[in-house]
Design brief:
The complex is a heterotetramer of chains A (641), B (204), C (473) and D (106).
Chain A (H helix, E strand, L loop, with lengths): L10 E2 L3 H19 L1 H4 L2 H19 L1 H5 L1 E2 L2 E2 L1 E9 L2 E7 L1 H24 L6 H20 L3 H19 L6 H32 L4 H7 L5 H18 L8 H4 L5 H10 L4 H8 L1 H5 L2 H22 L5 H22 L2 H28 L12 H4 L1 H15 L5 H15 L3 H26 L15 H16 L11 H5 L17 H24 L1 H5 L1 H10 L3 H4 L4 H48 L6 H21 L6
Parallel strand pairs in A: 1-4
Antiparallel strand pairs in A: 2-3, 4-5
Chain B lengths: L1 H19 L3 H21 L3 H27 L16 H21 L27 H9 L3 H23 L8 H22 L1
Helix pairs in contact in B: 1-2, 2-3
Chain D lengths: L9 H21 L3 H26 L3 H28 L16
Helix pairs in contact in D: 1-2, 2-3
Chain lengths: 641, 204, 473, 106
């Protein structure tokens, strides 16, 4: 079943830098884990340092990752033969290079931030061990040159996410959230596994290159099955409907975790997977329609739910879900560069937003309810600037990064012939603008409504990363400016060559931009009228309470997804388990065994009753036996001639 | 022929007497009569040596042993007595059924002509009047057969007798075996119960 | 020396330990560990050196023939590792007797795995039940559990013995394990197959023959369960591969549907029942039912990769269930209970204990990168390729359920607020940690590079494995 | 010389033997006194002996005599052992009744 020669995507060779950037975070994790008690506060610096080295190695790997020799794009490093016919290796091409840069770069900043944020926690070293381990796992995911390696990374990031969501494991809510996140992500893992089985059965290899080379030979059904199952994994990891319910709960973790894992990197793994498997998706219009629709639905649902949240991190969580919906929609319909672009900008502005909210939460002694904030602009001007740039960027205000990427996604839906998705995307953009500005206004405008007397301003380790992130939050989008001549398009020129054919939509790109901008402006305007004006902030506490009480139940219950999943799967499984464990196992299965044993005893009791101990009874039985024998001979034919 | 019928009547009557007599001693007397009649019947069958053995061994040895045992047990606390009949009631029809079955067999056998298979090979003396030397059934005839042809069964018999002797010595020669009868067990239980009750009353 | 020496070494160790003073726990443990480590160290040298002495010539030829096949070699290594760890970790009352019984268990199971003669195999099969029985009687909670274990498994052993005798009469020799040229013909053969299959299904166990297992696993002390669950449960699977698959492939093909059905049923049944158990050890017990069902499916899928995966997963399951039961044993020693309703929040004050349990739990739920995942992937790729798509789907559902019940077990013990009812105990001692560390290391190693096990076990054993996995004639 | 023929037809001996055996059997079954039971057993032995001798006479062959002799020996041994057991069991018993001895009750 081993193909004679593998079709690898990158240039084969030995790349020490690649190995270094991959393994350094693992080393950091192991050191922090092993020597945690000895390292104490130094653990944070150690982990951050290792990650910084990893980032540096990633940057230095740029030439290797973008090299183009004889059709092979990027660098390929063979590792080992994992199972017969299933080989592991690392692949650094523009796509994985981009992800690796974001993971190590943003990861480095968030590590730095965490040194301040997690200061004084009793499990400080453990936190950094988990964080470094997460980076290693995420790098495994994006650097793998094959589906099982990707699956390994996929599972390990799930584990890291589980550890970090449940980091404060003395809180029952955190424990429950961690378990939910892990189990739902295992559903996704299982989807990818199933896809791998089909792939191995048809290709005999798990390497991306082999699979993509063989993909033209797949039937439509096989292709759709593979894409659909892969998307189960993508949906679970990227919080797409209906596997999204873990993401809001995941905010139980420390805020830097939310920024790194549940905003910037891990949750975009689904986007990476689809972009990586672009040749498969491009060949399956059914899969494109399915994934695009689910992405759009998720974008809309996340935005709708984001409108009625009061916990600042849950607002950001639903916005994450919504924005990933955009990305999935983009890569799903075939606008791969658009979806990936939105991943890049989102990684920065969402990390920015989460770190900014972390500044507030840290300052207000772990207060997360925006109703108990307000008026923070004067108290925390730096946080305000940070949050405001993030909000402006996510809303797609021209000039800020989100504008460029979101525009590409929205126009991409039209280009690939999905006008309905275009409509959903535009509406969602408006809602996004509304609820993000709502958060901004409620948090920073008006009077302070909480009861924290002294605002605890964070130290430089927390402020510096936020400050640095402002730059790409504003500026990274300009890479995508300029159409085909933009640096972005040139960077990905060889990557998505096999994308679906682009049709010329009825309305031009300029017009769509204006439509989007109008909707966004409307959203901002409504938010301003409801929360930003002086009259609105005058009786803010009472108004917010009223508003909280009047949330429609369907939104308050998050479209009942939790309840439905609970009723359909959790309760059913538990009920079945209870029936089997408490009724079937002891009564039916073991009952049969016990009856067998008892019947032996019953037989013994029966024969025992013959043993009366009476000599005469024994004699009688003996005589009866003799009589039977005699009768047999007497009655047998010819006994007496 | 007349002797056969007379002896038959005596045999059956004495046998019935044996199993129905109230006292064991009467049974012994019945058995004695039975053995004696049987010995005479043996004589009519030209088995003079066995007739004598019958008298000596059965009447002389075994029956005397019975009488001794009767005397031994009678010298105990009470005359022979019996507890309640513990045979299950279901045994009665069973006994009846067995009787009918056996009776049927007897009836069938005596009614028909019993075919006598040809005699086995082997030398034996010719028939002659009882009391004559070396005729069929005489001491000489019997002895020759026993110590030549049937030597091995004879030796085995000796072994059986030896085992019996050893067994008897073991059974009755040691300390009196306790017979854990139900009645005694019930008595012991009753005593224990009474002792416990007394103990409880004392404490009170 | 040779394989016989390897089998006798633990027995000699047990005798030596019984000669020690009754209350000398330290010396007993040191000697026991030494013997177990010596067995482990000598395994590579001695296990493959065969020993054979003629035993019976009538009614069939039999020999005291010992020696590792490639398949049994890995199981012997697994046994040696698990036994050494369990003996080193043993901290039970009357430790001297316990450790001696552990060595008897190791010796009898070494005899089982190294036996090349079916009759010797059957005798060691029954012998390996006795130490467990005596430990259940002496250290368990209910005598009923011990009797149930013994009678249930002895009935399997009886079937095995009958089948072996019939096999010997038909073939003329029972000195066959590892030979590929045995072909049984006759009207008895279905019954021989039935006897073997019954014994192996009970020992594994597979639904519906599993009801002895949860009670046994929850009653016996942790170290003993670690070996019983980790290694003894592999005896049945080993028998399936080395005996049934090798000598009776036609019948295995004929009844493959039934066995696949039982295996699939075990996967789901064990998973669902584990979901709601209250005793942590019972959760692991039912998870074993689920995992071992998957291996049974893998064996009767008749696919090289699935079979290789089955071997890999046998080793992996041995390692992680040993780690889990050792860790749960530590929990039970500390808190006096393994009930989830009473345990809570141990992780705050026992981070190392938490880590030890965590490694086992993660391997059990098939975390990528650990050995369990490699086995599952290999098995399921093979099973899928053999056309059993619905079984693959069931196994995947089992994986999801596994994550749910394993996490529930782990989190309910280690996470949550610290319970005021539970006494605060010291964290994992260096001795306990050292007992679990080799298992964890092996789990990671096998997860990262499982190819080593597979090449060594599948390539070198054509008579055992690959010859029998051709499609039926 | 006397005639070769039996005094009466062989069937009469068989019938007489059967009746005697039957009476002995009834004795064993209905009596509870161990001594009488032993005597009944002797009756059965003798019934068998009668048959042996009748057939020996019919054939003029002394194998039947040898058998009868052996039966008598065994009967003697049996009586000795049986009586010893009776003495051992009932020496101290207030009742001489086999129904009172139920050591074999399961």
């Amino acid at each position: 079943m081993t193909p004679l020669h593998h079709a690898t995507l990158g240039v084969d060779g030995t790349y020490p830098l690649l190995l270094g950037l991959w393994l350094l975070p693992l080393l950091g994790a192991v050191l922090c884990w092993t020597f945690g008690p000895q390292l104490k506060a130094a653990a944070g610096w150690l982990a951050t340092g290792f990650l910084g080295c990893s980032f540096a190695a990633t940057v230095l790997s740029w030439p290797a990752g973008t090299q183009l020799i004889g059709g092979a794009h990027g660098a390929h490093q063979a590792l080992l033969s994992w199972l017969p016919g299933l080989d592991f290796g690392l692949l650094l091409d523009p796509l994985s290079l981009l992800w690796a840069l974001v993971i190590t770069g943003v990861g480095f900043l968030i590590h730095l931030y965490s040194i301040g944020y997690m200061h004084g926690d009793r499990a400080f070293a453990r936190f950094f061990a988990y964080m470094n381990f997460f980076v290693f796992a995420m790098l495994t995911l994006v650097l793998s040159d094959n589906f099982i390696g990707l699956l390994v990374g996929w599972g390990l990031v799930g584990l890291a996410s589980y550890f970090l969501i449940g980091f404060w494991f003395e809180r029952p809510s955190a424990v429950a959230a961690a378990r939910k996140a892990f189990v739902l992500n295992v559903v996704g893992d299982v989807g990818i596994m199933a896809a791998v089985f089909i792939i191995v059965a048809h290709v005999g290899s798990i390497g991306f290159g082999d699979v993509f080379a063989a993909s033209p030979g797949f039937g439509t059904g096989v292709l759709f099955a593979i894409c659909g199952l892969l998307f189960v994994g993508a949906a679970a990891k990227s919080a797409q409907i209906p596997l999204h319910t873990w993401l809001p709960d995941a905010m139980e973790g420390p805020t830097p975790v939310s920024a790194l894992i549940h905003a910037a990197t891990m949750v975009t793994a689904g986007v990476y997977l689809i972009a990586r498997c672009a040749p498969l998706w491009s060949a399956s219009p059914n899969a494109q329609l399915l994934v695009g629709s689910i992405g759009a639905a998720t974008a809309l649902a996340g935005a709708l739910l984001g409108m009625v949240q009061w916990d600042i991190k849950r607002i950001l969580a639903y916005s994450t879900m919504s924005q990933i919906g955009y990305m999935i929609m983009g890569v799903g319909v075939g606008a791969y560069d658009g979806g990936v672009a939105h991943f890049l900008t989102h990684a920065f502005f969402k990390a920015q937003l989460f770190l900014g909210s972390g500044l507030i939460i840290h300052a207000l002694a772990n207060e997360q309810d925006v109703r108990r904030m307000g008026g923070l602009r004067s108290k925390m001007p730096f946080a305000f600037v940070a949050m405001a740039t993030g909000v402006v960027a996510i809303c797609g205000v021209p000039g800020f990064s989100g504008y460029f990427s979101k525009d590409r996604v929205i126009y991409g839906t039209l280009e690939h012939g999905h006008p309905w998705l275009f409509g959903v995307a535009v509406v969602t953009a408006g809602i996004t603008a509304y609820y993000m500005f709502r958060m901004l206004f409620v948090t920073f405008m008006g009077e302070y409504r909480g009861d924290v007397d002294h605002v605890h301003l964070p130290d430089w380790t927390m402020n510096l990363p936020v400050g640095i992130l402002i730059v790409p939050t504003i500026g990274i989008g300009w890479l995508m400016f300029g159409g085909d001549a933009s640096p972005w398009n040139r960077f990905f020129a060889g990557q998505f060559a096999s994308g679906a054919p682009v049709t010329q939509p009825a309305i031009s790109e300029g017009l769509t931009t204006w439509i989007v901008l109008a909707v966004v402006a409307a959203g901002i305007g409504i938010a301003y009228l409801r929360y930003g004006t002086a009259t609105a902030s005058a009786d803010a506490p009472a108004r917010l309470e009223r508003e909280a009480a009047s949330v429609p139940p369907v939104l308050a219950n998050a479209f009942y997804f939790d309840a439905i999943i609970d009723a359909l799967f959790v309760r059913t499984s538990q009920g079945l388990g209870r029936f089997l464990g408490q009724t079937a196992d002891p009564l039916l299965v073991d009952g049969a065994v016990r009856e067998t044993a008892l019947s032996a005893g019953w037989l013994g009791a029966l024969t025992r009753s013959f043993q009366t101990g009476l000599v005469r009874a024994y004699a009688l039985v003996l005589v009866a036996g003799a009589a039977c024998l005699i009768a047999y001979y007497a009655l047998a034919p010819g006994a007496f001639r | 022929m007349i002797a056969f019928w007379v002896l038959s009547v005596v045999l059956i009557a004495s046998a019935v007497w044996t199993i129905t007599a109230q006292k064991p001693v009467y049974s012994v007397v019945g058995l004695l009569a039975n053995f004696a009649a049987l010995a005479i019947l043996y004589l009519t069958l030209s088995a003079e040596f066995l007739a004598v053995i019958q008298l000596i061994v059965y009447s002389g040895a075994i029956l005397v042993l019975f009488v001794f045992v009767i005397a031994l047990l009678s010298s105990g606390v009470a005359p022979f007595a019996a507890g309640p009949n513990r045979m299950p009631k279901a045994a009665l029809p069973a006994v009846a059924l067995v009787c009918v079955a056996l009776g049927f067999v007897v009836f069938a056998v005596t009614r028909g002509e019993v075919a006598i298979p040809p005699p086995p090979a082997g030398s034996t003396s010719a028939l002659g009047p009882v009391g004559t030397a070396d005729v069929f059934g005489s001491v000489g005839d019997f002895g020759k057969a026993l110590f030549t042809t049937y030597l091995l069964p004879f030796e085995v018999t000796a072994l059986i007798l030896m085992v019996a002797v050893v067994g008897v010595v073991l059974l009755s020669g040691t300390a009196p075996a306790k017979a854990p009868t139900r009645r005694r067990a019930a008595g012991v239980r009753r005593e224990l119960r009474e002792a416990v009750v007394r103990d409880g009353e004392d404490r009170r | 020396m040779n394989a016989l020496g390897l089998v006798l070494l633990p027995f000699a160790g047990a005798v030596a330990i019984w000669l020690l003073p009754r209350d000398n726990r330290t010396a007993a443990r040191a000697l026991g560990t030494l013997v177990a480590l010596a067995t482990l160290a000598l395994t590579p040298a001695w296990a493959t050196r065969a020993f054979s002495v003629r035993w019976l010539s009538r009614p069939f030829a039999a020999a005291f023939h010992f020696g590792a096949t490639p398949l049994s070699y890995w199981l012997v290594l697994l046994l040696a590792v698990c036994s050494a760890c369990a003996i080193f970790a043993a901290n039970v009352p009357r430790a001297r007797d316990f450790i001696a019984w552990m060595l008897v268990l190791e010796g009898s199971m070494l005899g089982l795995f190294l036996a090349r003669d079916l009759l010797v195999f059957a005798l060691f099969w029954d012998l390996m039940l006795l130490p467990v029985f005596f430990v259940l009687i002496g250290w368990g909670r209910h005598h009923g559990t011990a009797w149930r274990y013994l009678i249930y498994n002895f009935s399997g052993g009886l079937a095995l013995l009958f089948a072996t005798a019939a096999f010997g009469v038909l073939d003329g020799s029972t000195d066959v394990i590892g030979r590929g040229d045995v072909h049984l013909i006759g009207s008895w053969v279905p019954w021989i197959f039935a006897g073997f299959a019954f014994a192996f299904l009970v020992k594994t166990p597979v639904f519906p023959f599993h009801t002895w297992m949860p009670a046994t696993y929850s009653d016996a002390p942790g170290p003993m369960v670690a070996v019983v669950s980790g290694v003894q449960s592999k005896a049945g699977l080993y028998g399936f591969i080395a005996i049934t698959l090798a000598f009776l492939p036609d019948y295995l093909h004929q009844y493959a549907g039934l066995l696949v059905g039982l295996g699939a049923l075990s996967i789901l049944y064990g998973a669902f029942v584990a979901l709601v158990q209250n005793d942590a050890k019972r959760i692991v017990a039912y998870s074993s039912l689920s995992h071992l069902g998957l291996i049974v499916v893998a064996i009767v899928a008749f696919q090289p990769l699935a079979l290789a995966g089955a071997v890999l997963y046998m080793v992996a399951h041995g390692l992680f269930s040993a780690a889990l039961f050792l860790a749960l044993g530590f929990v039970e020693e500390r808190e006096g209970t393994s009930l989830l309703s009473r345990l809570r929040g141990l992780g705050r004050d026992n981070p190392r204990l938490s880590g030890a349990l965590c490694i086992g739990a993660l391997a059990a739920l098939g975390l990528p990168g650990l050995a369990g995942f490699a086995g599952e992937i290999a098995i399921l790729i093979g099973v899928y390729q053999s056309g059993l798509v619905w079984v693959t789907a069931i196994a995947l559902a089992g994986i999801v359920l596994a994550s749910a019940y394993v996490l529930r077990m782990f989190q309910d013990v280690m996470n949550g607020p610290v319970s005021p009812d539970l006494p605060v105990r010291p964290d994992l001692t260096w001795r306990e940690g050292l007992a679990i560390a080799p298992l964890a290391a092996a789990l990671i190693l096998l997860g990262v590079n499982p190819h080593a096990v597979l090449t060594a076990s599948s390539a070198q054993s054509p008579p055992v494995a690959t010859a029998a996995i051709e499609p039926p004639r | 010389m006397i005639e070769n023929a039996l005094p009466v037809a062989i069937g009469n001996y068989v019938g007489l033997s059967a009746v005697l055996f039957f009476i002995g059997l009834t004795g064993v079954l209905i009596r509870r006194n161990p001594l009488v039971m032993l005597m009944s057993i002797e009756l059965m032995f003798n019934a068998a002996n009668l048959l042996f001798l009748a057939f020996a006479r019919a054939w003029v062959h002394n194998a039947g005599h040898i058998f009868a002799f052996l039966v008598i020996t065994v009967a003697a041994a049996e009586a000795a052992i049986g009586l010893a057991i009776v003495v051992a069991v009932f020496r101290d018993a207030p009742f001489v009744d086999v129904d009172e001895v139920r050591l074999l009750k399961g």
